[in-house]
Amino acid sequence: MTPTRPPTATELLQDAGVRQVIEQAWLDSLANDPILRHEEGGWIYLDLTSGVLSFIRAIAGATSGISLSAPPTVAGAVVVGKFHTHPNPEIEGWTTGPSPSDLRIDAAHGVPDLIRAEDGVHFSGPVTRRGGLAGGPGYPP
Q1: Taking a C-beta distance cutoff of 8 angstroms, is the pair 79, 68 a contact?
Q2: Please, which residues bridge with residue 54 across strands?
Q3: Residues 51, 60: contact at Cβ < 8 Å?
Q4: Strands 113-117 and 77-86
Q5: CA-to-CA dists, residue 94 to 10, 26, 53, 86, 88, angstroms
Q6: pLDDT tens digits, residue range 57-87?
Q7: Are 9 and 127 in contact (CB under 8 A)?
Q8: pLDDT tens-digit profile of 99-126?
Q9: In Å, how far are 41, 108, 134 from 62, measured between CA atoms?
Q10: Edge to edge, what strands does the sheet with 77-86 contain?
């Protein structure tokens, strides 16, 4: 069914595919390995004809950072969200929720950011894609 609006962050989290890709990113981030832990993430796309969500994973990040600034173009789809992990434990002084940098970048990117940490999934950025389904296939203007 042709979508008329982008999904909200809550709707994205209710999607089994979104939950699966976030959980796989969490496993891949090696949160239990103090030497090898790193951030993982990617982008969530909405097909403008079918309404189907798809995902592209980004290149693995560093201990406390990942670049999600350049989503690949997917023909016939727009970016409606992104996700990344925070694998570093709160007991070591790390923030499980969005960092100040996440908040700033997510506001600029204009799509919900779902952040998986040891205590669950946190949310940052707008509730839904800024400007609806209009604009280019990447982040909205």
Answers
A1: no
A2: 45
A3: no
A4: parallel
A5: 25, 16, 31, 9, 6
A6: 999 999 999 999 999 999 999 999 999 999 9
A7: yes
A8: 999 999 999 999 999 999 999 999 999 9
A9: 11, 21, 33
A10: 53-57, 41-47, 77-86, 113-117, 120-124
Token digits for 22? 């976030």
Report whether 128 contacts 9 (CB < 8 A). yes
Domains parsed from the chain with CATH numbers: 9-124 (3.40.140)
In angstroms, the CA 94 to CA 134 distance is 37
Give the residue among 89, 76, 95, 87 at the shortest CA–CA distance from 22: 87
Count of CB atoms situated within 10 Å of the CB of 126 = 20
